[in-house]
Amino acid sequence: MRLLFWYLRTVLQSYPSARFRLALLYMALMIGCLGVSAVLVINQGAQQSYAQQGQGLLPLVEYKLVAASAPQLSKFDYAQVHRLGITEAVAVSQISTILYSAQHQPLTHQPIDIIGFDTLALLNYRTSQQQKQTRQQGQSQQSKLALELTSLPQNSAFISIGLYTKLREQVPNHLEIDDSIVITTAQGQHLPLLQQVNLANMDNEIVMDISLFARQFGDTPISDILLVGEISPQRLNDIRRLLPAHLTLLTLPSSEQNTGMRDSFKLNLLAMALLMFVVCLFIVMNACQLLIMQRLPMLKIFRQLGISRLSIITGQLVELWLLTLLAAALGVYFGVTLALYLAPGIQATLESLFRVSVGFAEVSYLSLFVQVLLLSTLGITLAALLPVKQLNQTLYRADSTSPAKSFWFTPMTWLLLVSAAITLWLSQTIRVSLMGIALLILAGCFVLIACYPYVLNATSALVPKRWPLLHWSLQHSLWLSGRSKIACCAFFIALMSNIGMNLMVDSFRQATHDWLNQRLIADYYLYQTDNIDAATSIKQLRLNIQAVQRFELKAQYAGLPIQVHSHPSATSFIAALKTQSQLPDAGAVYAAGQGAYVNQQFALRNKIKLGQSISVPLNSGVSAFAVVGIVYDYGNPYGQILLPPKLFDDKSKRSNVLALYASAAQMNTLSEHLEQQGFNRAQQLYSADQLLDLSMATFERTFIITDSLNIVTLLVAAISLACGIIVLMQDTKPQLTLLRTLGVSRWVMQGLSLLQYLFLCLLALVFAIPFGVLLSWLLINFINKQAFYWTYPLNISISQITSVSAMGLLLVSVIILLPLLWTNNKPLIKDIRWLS
Amino acid sequence: MAKLSFLRLATLITLYPIMVLLLGACSDQSVGSDPKSVLFSDSTPAVKGTPASPNYVITLPADHLAHPDFSVEWWYLTANLHDENGADYAFQWTLFRFKTRDQINAWDNGQSYMAHVSLHSKNKHWFAERFARGGVGNAGVTEQPLSLFLDDWQWQADEGQGLLFPSTITVRNIPDTQMKQPAQDIEVSLHLSTHGPFVLHGQKGYSVKSVTPPLASHYYSQPFIQVTGGLRVNGQEHQLTGQGWFDHEWSSQLMDTSTAGWDWFSIHLDNGAKIMAFRMRLPGQTDYISGSYIEPNGTSTALSSSELALVPHSQTQVAGRLFPLTWRLSLANKNIELKLQANKSDQLNSGRFAYYEGALNISGTHSGKGFMELTGY
């Protein structure tokens, strides 16, 4: 202990002479901790805001009942299952609506889910929960809500504090619990008294008893019958046995669809954090190496003084852990600050992208600090392994020799490639796919390292012997490649992920643009509100404007919510559908009312093939249609079925959007007329071009995070490479000094050094391009498909690949030049002195 | 949920009075306030029902059905049973109905239901409660044949014509209160037949509960029930036989909130006579004691406090509270001096409200069996 204290004190005294390296190490550590903290805070705040049918709101909801043949469940079904003894069943009714103030001003931009639960059935859960409380103290947020719901006072509904605050900001003078409620739904129904509830699993929902729900919103059908509470396998068998023939038990897609959205969001963030962690690990590793190299003379003196290698290594590790402790403290502080600073922007982006809400209100610094400290301690221990191992060898031997080439390298490379292929081939879930991708990236690194000697030798052989310096330079690259494996791999990973992400985003951008361009065939799109009835105005004004308003129904298919929308059957409208595949006579069958187009989400989720017959809930009945085409429908979390408008009865709900075929003059007349009714032209009327521009602008904003992340990754990889170079410079000093004493000028030496490093980077780039393309294909066809049930065509854009390559090489050139120029400033005599 | 005191809860006007009151009591872990007494609480219901009237004439079998205009109603069966080996069992089945609102909608006919089932063996206690709203179809009282049900717990008459007996009670899935685990395979199926008439308590079924304030209910019983049936626990079958007691009571005249609780007894004497006795505990007042003496032929006599003495003898601690589990009951006119003692001390029903309900051993001038209900302790 005393020795350790003495060691640390001596090391501390040497800090002024290692400012740069220490700063690099500390910054790398702190940035790593900062990134992890920020991501953990964001992840902690991520909630399942669009919990479908409230299943995320209630405790342990893993199953629900679905009608095998009927379009939807009835109250009779509900009573029947209870009378059969399935007391876990809880009926849920739900509507989604924009909320309005008394003055008909919209209070929310996104629809709010208003959910009614059979709270009396929840009391059964409460009883069983209370009986279990003696052996099980912990309560989930869902349990708390279930318990709170059963004690909800008369005529009251629960609202989350967040949503309440949002609404209050809109109507500060009116939204008082004790006042008369002035919030209404789109249909003008008043909300009951709202009681704030502070539960993490509630976000954009208002929940109440189903009786109150029925009173407020009429006889809304049952959305779901959920089974609430812990259900043992034996009980599950009993329930299956008890169920009437027309009802079946459906395992809720907690990991597939509903929480899949949240999970994919969390997964995405975790991947970001992991990437940052790994990249910081590279820097930390190099920075450690730099630090140890610099203090090597001092450590050798320690050895001569009789201090054991174990003591030196222990002291070194303790020093690193202490630095980690400080870095974690600052990293957590700055990470939380960063997360809170970015909150509004991230909130808007993530809400639109993942349909999840991000809350940053409550951060437990202590818990966060412990998590980050553990993670970073683990990280730095891993990162320090290699430098410490080298230190151990250096302290043991007088000189170092080149490590022998490992015989297991090539088989390992093949093993990784085959494992990645098999994992991806068998993958059914996002996690397995991510694992496959991780294996592929690792395999790529191994391929690169395995190929370096062959490619460099071949290139060297091509260089004529009359250019000895160039020849030496290429041969020296081979030596460098063996010494800078980690840095080269970091650069390879950064390039590969950059190319992969850029190609994916570019493909998505292109697909979205084409899709929107194809679908937005009307001249104008008008967004109606309660007080605006454009269709009537068009008739009154006798304008020759064709107005198309689609029907949109919510239904269930195989127990999952779907959309049943109308889509005109005219040829131009059919042509506007961007199809993934369709039957040859799709348009005709569709127009005849016998066929349906389905979106990719519906087809993939339900494994629907072209020509297959599907039963569609429509007009209080069920009709069968053949699937004539599968259409792209980017970003829609729901399965969708398109049917000709003539099949919908007049009672069907219509969309509030009108597609209008009109001239600018006609639209002007209509707008002027509507403005007298409170129509806001700027916010409620868009031309197709405006809508396209708006959508694409939103798209670009959404992917700013990805772009920024790409640049950060490249930069960090380049820094990692630069650190590696500084270390290597120490090792190559004798050879370089010798060359200089032979008369090779400083600038030629620099040029040759730059050439060597750039050549290694260029090779990394050559390998990164095919792997990057493969990565983007995997992201689209595995990750996107498994997370969202939709894909889009991969667009291999040469310009994207070129720009990423150029940016990568430029960045790495600049970064490499810095240490080279720094070395260049040293006079030759200094190096010669060093040699002696 | 915030801890709410019983009195505070009693002032709440809630959507489901029973629910909230029960929950409140539960969160306070109040023991001994049974659903009956709480439901009599004056400020409980959101909706006022028809008051009980001395002029109301109970007509059977029509009055076996629900009285939805009244605020509260219950159908209560208790049974002292034994199996083929002579082991004692005590069984309770209760369906409560509450009028919760005047407005009705697709999910609510203005009535809510709660059911309790309890079964005691010598060493075990199974108890469960369930809730449901009326108008959905999983709880209610229907005729042709008469059926009382909540989910799969049901009491169904064998024949039509609205008769309650002979009938069969079936219950499943009752957790063992000691094990804290659902006992999914427990099933009780009891057949009920009668060998005597229904008995109207008080003045032809108008049963006064307190003079000040004047509170009363409509109350009749069937004390002559022969019970046979089976019990299946964890795959083991037991044949049960014994005698049961059925109460049906409804009211809208509610008790004062300061009512402390009540003690109620049903007694099957071995000579064939039956006794119903209760004591209302009213703080600051003399306890209100009343009852009925029923001859083996079914002839009943209302008992006033001058004729009936009902005195707690000793107290026992159950779940941290003292309950009078031994009583003395005297009917001087009938030369009856009884010692009433709980079969076992742990007969607490730990539902929303914890109240004491269990079997009695009877000794003294007469022997017999019975049931005891203690609330408000």
Automatic annotation (TrEMBL), chain B:
Pfam families: CrtC (PF07143), Lipocalin_9 (PF17186). It comes from the Bacteria. Residues 72-252 form the AttH domain. InterPro entries: AttH-like_dom_sf, AttH_dom. Gene3D superfamilies: AttH-like domain (2.40.370.10). PANTHER family: BLL1000 PROTEIN, HYDROLASE. This is AttH domain-containing protein. It comes from Paraglaciecola polaris LMG 21857.
